[in-house]
Write a structure and sequence with these properties.
The complex is a heterodimer of chains A (230) and B (445).
Chain A: H1 3-19, H2 23-38, H3 45-65, E1 72-79, E2 83-88, H4 89-115, H5 118-124, H6 128-157, H7 164-169, H8 172-192, H9 210-228
Antiparallel strand pairs in A: 1-2
Helix pairs in contact in A: 1-2, 1-4, 1-9, 2-4, 3-4, 5-6
Chain B: E1 4-12, E2 18-27, E3 32-37, H1 43-51, H2 53-56, E4 61-68, E5 71-72, H3 78-81, E6 85-88, H4 101-111, H5 116-129, H6 145-158, E7 163-167, H7 175-185, E8 191-195, H8 199-205, E9 208-213, E10 216-222, H9 223-233, E11 253-263, E12 267-277, E13 281-285, H10 292-300, E14 307-312, E15 316-319, H11 332-337, H12 342-351, H13 367-379, E16 385-389, H14 397-409, E17 415-419, H15 423-429, E18 432-435
Parallel strand pairs in B: 3-8, 3-9, 6-7, 7-8, 13-17, 13-18, 15-16, 16-17
Antiparallel strand pairs in B: 1-2, 1-4, 4-5, 9-10, 11-12, 11-14
Helix pairs in contact in B: 4-5, 4-6, 5-6, 12-13
The chains are: A mainly alpha (230), B alpha/beta (445).
Chain lengths: 230, 445
């Protein structure tokens, strides 16, 4: 499938997850996107962990900051400013819905980052500079992660093991400095290869296939169904 | 008319002393010019001046004139020169922009406005020319460093440039890979300027040699004359391979690797054994992708074997490839003191030739100085087993000799394992060589 069509489909699923109010529908969307992400294999792990943690936080914190519903499951103390820390069935449902919404959006982004060919997406884009910046930023995450691993390994090679939050936080400054150096080299390489010159051309794009068109139709249909019935 | 002409070029980076002084040079079509010189002698700056990146990208004070294909680089931006000139830099990871191999090779062609219907055929031709025809739809993150360097060369060759600039392009390749690279790069009709720290291969292909020292051209001669001059005045640059050192005494076993196997997503090492004794320096050699670094990490304890065992008598320390990237403190002495204390750190800085640089920021040091600083950071821990992974990458021959002498001076105190593809360095520093032969086809051999 063309990356543009896939990106539209993923966006459609994410938007539907945000507008849908039925718990089962959002759950199905999240499960579908999870299945898509799992196709990336081990590379999906950090994205899945990030999504799981974010959604988990929302699920835990949501009922504590809400005061609605009559079916109390647990009564806690009353906290100044926050009010009574009761957990109701309605609040739990709201927590689950919003956690699943966040998970669906996170998984849609993960699928975009892991499975789409960003180069072809870039080739199809009209705002090439902006999309190239986005593509480079997307690649920055694994590069940053690899640099961090290298830094920790280099320190271990010297018999030094960074420990705790403070130990790891101290690595942030050299990591950023390293990224800046890399960015400078990359900018130089881009200039040497004619980036920014007028009269740019493109590799001719392959024609849209029926399944690409189907993906766009499905994306629009899912959003419409989500707004009207889900 | 010369393809490129440098006329009395003097250039200084902002707030720095001159990197080039009164440099003049002419490159003819089809000519291969080899630039030699110590780290910081101005080779890379001269390459960048020919690409127009100096002064456009770097800024600084520029006097004199550089013309490429009749265009003055003071009035022509590097982006406008792209296509006429193509550059391959030292580190492939710092020049790859896009995610897929074919997109990466097409990137420059699109930028220079190549006819759309010609782009993909030129991409495929360039990939085939560098021997990676089947890599079109591979991700750049899934291929080895040697393969990535080929992609960079393909990106340059696809432009069909008149002037090809290569800035230490083989520093990450094994000897066979480096030779293959030169055969691919230098087989065309373009004028070529190569900057190199390991001149043996490049000397075979060069028509002319320039030797730079402190920004000045010390020698500009035909190859045969240059080889004679180097042998007489800069013998370290004419690589010789004497026999390995004959050590008189080796001590007890410091590290024993017994029937070790290790796999990432596919097997890298299978049933490998190795013994390192106190007092000896062992060179670990083998083609790119043969598992040298993995074995080195197992010896140093950075990886645990999946089968077999590694037994160490005492502590181990390891200097990773490209250690200059992994410096964490803001003063050189504090960087070294991370593994020890300040007085000892300063002593070690002096031992590696960095006395007087204690207060400097590690990232302000030159590449060669960073390498020595990094070496000090592992030597200061006084390990029983010292492992160095490609310590001569980007280091000029004279500094390599100094490094070999430094390691030899401390050899008796420990067992030393040096992972290297630098044959001359291996012979200069090691008592014996252990070669890893890959089960599969080497990446660039």
């Amino acid at each position: 499938m063309r990356p543009t069509a896939a990106a539209i489909l993923l966006s459609g699923l994410a938007v539907t997850a945000l507008v849908a109010t039925r718990l089962w529908a959002v759950g199905v969307l999240a499960a579908l996107l999870l299945a898509v992400c799992l196709r990336a294999g081990r590379r999906a792990k950090p994205y899945l962990w990030g999504t799981l943690w974010s959604a988990g936080f929302v699920f835990i914190l949501w009922p504590l900051f809400q005061s609605r519903g009559y079916h109390v499951l647990w009564s806690g103390p009353t906290i100044p400013v926050l009010g009574p820390l009761d957990v109701t069935t309605e609040e739990l449902r709201g927590a689950a819905l919003n956690a699943l919404r966040l998970a669906a959006v996170g998984l849609a982004f993960a699928a975009y980052a892991l499975l789409l060919d960003h180069d072809r997406l870039l080739a199809a884009a009209t705002a090439r500079h902006s999309v190239l910046a986005a593509a480079l930023a997307t690649r920055l995450v694994p590069t940053f992660e690899r640099d961090a691993r290298g830094l920790v390994e280099a320190l271990r090679g010297r018999g030094i093991a960074p420990e705790g939050l403070r130990g790891h936080a101290a690595l942030l400054s050299p990591l950023v400095a390293g990224s800046l150096e890399r960015g400078f080299s990359l900018a130089e390489a881009m200039e040497a290869r004619g980036f920014g010159r007028s009269g740019r051309t493109r590799v001719p794009a392959a024609p849209w296939q029926p399944r690409d068109q189907a993906a766009v139709v499905v994306a629009v249909a899912v959003v419409v169904v989500g707004v009207l019935w889900l | 008319m010369a393809l490129a002409r440098v006329d009395r070029l003097t250039f200084a980076y902002p707030e720095s002393p001159p990197a080039l002084l009164e440099v003049s040079l002419e490159v003819e079509r089809g000519e291969v010019v080899l630039l030699l010189g110590a780290s910081g002698s101005g080779k890379s700056t001269l390459v960048r001046a020919l690409a127009g990146l100096v002064p456009w990208f770097h800024g600084g004070r520029f006097e004199g004139r550089v013309e490429v294909a009749g265009r003055d680089t003071r009035s022509t931006r590097p982006t406008e020169l792209a296509g006429t000139v193509a550059t391959v830099f030292q580190d492939p990871e710092d020049q790859v922009i896009l995610g897929r191999v074919d997109s990466e090779v097409a990137f420059a062609l699109e930028n220079v406005g190549a006819l759309p219907e010609t782009i993909l055929p030129r991409v495929h031709r360039a990939l085939a020319a560098v021997g990676i025809a089947g890599f079109s739809d591979r991700s750049v993150t899934e291929i080895s460093g040697g393969e990535l360097q080929r992609v960079c060369l393909a990106s340059a060759l696809a432009l069909e440039p008149e002037l090809l600039l290569l800035d230490e392009p083989t520093s990450q390749l094994d000897p066979a890979g480096a030779e293959a690279f030169f055969e691919l790069a230098l087989g065309g009709e373009a004028g070529v300027v190569i900057s190199e720290q390991r001149p043996a291969n490049a000397l075979r292909y060069a028509d002319r040699v320039l030797f730079l020292e402190q920004g000045r051209v010390l020698l500009d001669a035909r190859r045969d004359d240059a080889v004679e001059w180097l042998a007489e005045h800069r013998p370290a640059w004419v690589e010789q391979q004497p026999g390995f050192n004959q050590i008189a005494v080796v001590g007890e076993v410091a590290c024993s690797v017994e029937n070790v196997s290790f796999a990432y997503e596919r097997p890298v090492l299978e049933n490998v054994s190795l013994e390192l004794r106190r007092g000896e320096v062992v060179a670990l050699t083998g083609p790119n992708g043969s598992g040298k670094t993995t074995l080195a990490k197992l010896v140093a304890g950075l990886l645990e074997p999946q089968t077999g065992r590694v037994v160490r008598a005492g502590t181990a320390a390891m200097l990773l490839q490209d250690p200059g990237r992994y410096l964490v403190r803001e003063r050189a002495d504090e960087e070294v003191a991370l593994g020890s204390d300040l007085p000892r750190a300063r002593k070690m800085l002096a031992a590696v030739g960095l006395a007087g640089s204690e207060a400097r920021h590690p990232r302000d040091l030159s590449t060669g100085e960073r390498e020595r600083l990094a070496l000090a950071t592992v030597l200061v821990a006084d390990p029983d087993v010292l492992v160095l992974d490609e310590p001569t990458r980007g280091v000029d021959p004279e500094r390599r000799q100094e490094l070999a002498a430094l390691l030899r001076a401390h050899a008796a105190e420990r067992a030393t394992l040096v992972v290297t593809n630098d044959r001359a360095f291996a012979h200069a520093v090691a008592d014996r060589e252990v070669a890893i032969a890959p089960e599969r086809e080497p990446v660039l051999a």
